[in-house]
Each structure stands twice: as C-alpha cells, then as structure tokens.
Amino acid sequence: MSKLNAALTGIHAYVPEYILTNEELSTMVDTNDEWIQSRTGIKERHILKGEAKGTSILGTQAVLGLLEKTNIKPAEVDLIICATVTPDMLFPATSNIIAFNTGCVNAFAFDMNAACSGFLFALQTGRMYIESGQYKKVIVVGADKMSAITDYTDRKNCILFGDAGGAVMLEPTTEDFGIMDADLHTDGSGKDFLYQKAGGSLYPPTHETVENREHFIHQEGQSVFKFAVSKMADVSADMMTKHEIKPEELAWLVPHQANLRIIDATARRMGIRKEQVMINIQKYGNTTDATIPLCLHDWESQLKKGDKIILAAFGGGFTWGAIYIKWAYDGDKVKKIS
C-alpha cells in the first residue's frame, strides 16, 4: 500500500466586523499610532463584541466557510481539533461546541493548548490521524478571542492582540503533497515569562485574583522576544537545510504574526526575501492560534499546487516549531464565498 500523506485541501478564516484601530487605543491608554507601528507593525485588530460570544463563534464561522468551499457535508467530517488558549469554558471543549454548531454529528472533537504554537501542534496531530488510515476528513481549527484576556490598561500588551478563527481540511493522498515534516519543541522554563496567572487549578478565581488583574496576559517582552527570534528562526532554517530547500525554492514562509521584528529576523536567518513571507499583522495583530490559518486564507488565491511552504510559530510555555508542506491545490481555482 502506498504511503498516505495528509494534504491540506481547503482553508477558510473569519474575523469579527469591529475594528479596533491604533487611534482608538490611544484614547484608552498612553500610546499612539507611531509608537505601536514602530515596535510591532500593527495598525489595527478585529474584536468580537457582544454578550455571550466566545471563541466558538470564531471557530464555527471558519468551519462553516471551509465546508462550503470544499463541498464537504458536515456528516462526512471524522474529527475536529481546536487549538485555542481562550476556550469558551474550561469544559466542555470548544471543539465540541464547534462540531455541534456546524452539524458535524459524526466527528469526535477535542481542544489543544500550546499557546501561539497550538495550530502547528494540532496540525501535526491531525496529520497522524490521517496517515494512520483510520480517518479521511479532519478539520484543524485555530481560534482565539484574545480580547477576553487582554488588559486594556496595560499599554505594552493591549496593543498586540486581536480576535479571529481559521480552519483547514486535511484529507489523505498518495501523491507527493501535504505535510512533509514537522519539528516541534517545548521548554517549560518559559512559564515565567508569558502566562495568564489565575483561572486554573493553581490559582482558582477569587476576589483577590480579579482585583489584582491576574486573569489577563502577563508578558516580559524582552525575554520573550530574544527567545522567539532565536528559536523560530533556527527551527525554520533547520527545516530548509534538512530538506535541501534553497532560499529561491521556497514559495512561502508563513510565520506566526506576533511582532514584525520577529518575522523579519526569521526571514533573514532563512536567507529569503520579504516577498516570500506572508505578513498581515498590520491588519489583525496577534490572533494567537489563528494567525497562520488567517495568513493562508488571505494568500490562498496565490498558492499553487506543489508550492513548498514552511509554517513557523513560537508561543508561551515556551513552545515553538516548524512544519514543511507541499501545497496540494491551485488556490485561484477555489470556490469564492463571502
């Protein structure tokens, strides 16, 4: 029997309508457009507004669009994996809610949390289910409502984050396309530099944790920046070396959209041109697990069958990794939906 590869056969993403601009942020905290753009590259970000609206809304809309574009019936889906750090609730899993909302009645579902690297970890997990031969249609979702854990009195962190959801379809193929390799890592020492202190079993919610604003993101920027630049750049460059991919042969680098300076440093380390890098951080900010599928969605029409693509991410924990993909279809031939 020929080896099965897990091919990405569809992509869709969703962002909420409300746009939070740098100008509006400057009325909330002591900041300005020039300061934000010079340090992060971000101009605006989308925010999910309204009562009782969580991450499942973002994931649901991404999956519904994906099913429509791929002409796949919900009942055909075998598995949904949702990478998120902002689940609707600690339980049930947000993926369960997404499966219910989208009518994927035959799919089992679970969540994964690897911070901003979560989409890559979930994609690799979905790959294993496809390559086992047991499942034929696996949806991997990356979705986060980062506004729910962002402190809008913290001028260094509130400028960074936005809300979005993205989803990809994985299907088996015996052709030389799909996920070719993955190199994923963790280092628990990072827990001291990027975290949400309260809300888990270590520090359950109390009046004190709320008053001390411990349910929001805490980040020591310089420590995270230095680690992110070295690890994301090295793992991406190593992937190119391992597979003998020359810089001019790489169609795209799809990096996690955390900070424009981290993205630029990674591209330089890989020896590729800026034109080979997907960058949309200026429009969405850091949407955590959604950044990579959001990039693939924005560039889908430019993707060609056989394109060599590297996905790269870095996140709290610390977590980081790279995935090498050979793209499986011509994006300009995909059904267009609103």
Describe this structure in words.
This protein is of the alpha/beta class and 338 residues long. The chain folds into two domains: 172 residues, 3-Layer(aba) Sandwich (Peroxisomal Thiolase, Chain A, domain 1), CATH 3.40.47.10; 154 residues, Peroxisomal Thiolase, Chain A, domain 1 (3-Layer(aba) Sandwich). The longest helix has 22 residues. The mean pLDDT is 95. A five-stranded mixed β-sheet has the order 1-7-6-4-5, sandwiched between helices. Helix content is 30%, strand content 24%.
CATH class of the largest domain equals: Alpha Beta
Rough outline: globular
Q: Which sequence of SSEs, written as H and E, runs from N to C?
A: EEHHEHEHEHEEEEHEHEHHHEE
CATH homology group of the largest domain: Thiolase/Chalcone synthase
Mean pLDDT: 95
- Order of strands, widest sheet: 1-7-6-4-5
The count of helical stretches stands at 10
How many beta-strand runs?
A: 13
Distance separating the two termini: 40 Å
Percent of residues in helices comes to 25-40%
Q: At CATH's second level, what is the architecture of the largest domain? A: 3-Layer(aba) Sandwich
Query: What integer value in Å does the Rg equal?
Result: 19 Å
**What's the number of structural domains?**
2
